[in-house]
Amino acid sequence: MSTEIEIPQSNIARGISIIIPAYNEEGAIGKTIGDINKMLPDLGRPAEVLVVDDGSTDNTAGLAQAAGVRVIRQPINGGYGRALMTGIISASYDTIAIVDADDTYPIDRLPELAVKYDEGFQMVVGSRQGIHFDGSWFSRLQRMAFRFLAEFAAGRAIPDVNSGFRIFDRRPVLEVKGSFSTGFSFTCSLTLLFLLTHLHVAYLPVPYHRRIGETKVKKLKDALRALQIIVTFFAQFNPLKLYLLLLLVCWGGNIMFGVGLWLLVGTASAAFLVTLVAWNVGCLLGACTILSLVLLRPDVSIERLIKSCRI
């Protein structure tokens, strides 16, 4: 498949659709919409506000409707990514802005992103900063790993892989909408799509606030899904780098395990023989499983595969 997506040079749109995915956010949705309404005059262009209620069991949709914005209600909770894609498809304008409903992003900074977008970028991302973004050691370690993989695939620095505060042209997204995650990895998919197809992406630092209400992120599940998304885009847009990465893992593993067995067994030849057989067979099986999963069965998540293997 082609690694480039053609879109017109100028992306100064007639208007902008601001999409807010929301699931059980009645404690914050009113403030979020209010902040957006205060900011709208500073955008300097027509705008619509679209709340996609993702099967909420509280009064999120009712409060959004009372605030006078457009609301799309989904009958069941389909996931963050599915809610965003519903909004992107339903939006009135090609220029899309997304922001979470939990009051974590500085909505008053959206005009700055819009000004940068008008310079000719196809996507401008608010790169999160601050103690509330840093999170736990597990979150930091996870972000470092995903950031390394994403930067290795894209060949450039990526300050924030999965920020939920950005402006972008929806046309490249609609061309490959079937490749996107329905969960929290959706924004990671956006980042990789635009960078791997050589579209212009800019980052602006923004503060990240403490959220209102409880987080909907499931760390292990969403981490596994994000890993699958990264490998999928690797395989589709830059397969040579994916295979190079697998080779480096095999090569590094051979050395590490060989030295370890040598120290334990005391015989270099026996240690390396066992290592070569065991490690390479394991890597081959693992690589075949992952590649077949992401290429032949994109509808099946890694988490589901792991669950099916449990005794």
What does this molecule look like?
- This protein has two domains: about 15-235, Spore Coat Polysaccharide Biosynthesis Protein SpsA, Chain A, CATH 3.90.550.10; about 240-310, no CATH class.
- α10 (about 240-265) packs antiparallel against α11.
- It has helices at about 30-40, 60-65, 80-90, 110-115, 130-135, 135-155, 170-175, 185-195, 220-235, 240-265, 270-295, 300-310; strands spanning about 15-20, 45-55, 70-75, 95-100, 125-130, 165-170, 200-205.
- Strands 3-2-1-4-6-5-7 form a seven-stranded mixed beta sheet, sandwiched between helices.
- It is elongated.
- The chain is of the alpha/beta class.
- It contains twelve helices and seven strands.
- The two termini are about 40 Å apart.
Can you describe this structure in just a few lines?
The protein has 311 residues and is of the alpha/beta class. It has twelve helices and seven strands.
Would you tell me the overall average pLDDT? 78
Strand order of the largest sheet: 3-2-1-4-6-5-7
CATH architectural grouping of the largest domain: Alpha-Beta Complex
What is the β-strand count? 7
The gross shape turns out to be elongated
Q: How many DSSP H or I helices? A: 12
Strand-pairing-aware structural class: alpha/beta
What Rg, in angstroms, do the CA atoms define? 22 Å
Largest sheet: 7 strands, mixed
Q: Examine the coordinates and then state which fold CATH places here, giving the name of the CATH topology of the largest domain.
A: Spore Coat Polysaccharide Biosynthesis Protein SpsA, Chain A
- Can you give the helix content as a percent range? 40-55%
- Low-pLDDT residue intervals, each spanning 5 or more residues: 1-5, 8-13, 296-311
How many distinct domains? 2
**Topology pattern, helix = H, strand = E:** EHEHEHEHEHHEHHEHHHH
CATH class group of the largest domain: Alpha Beta
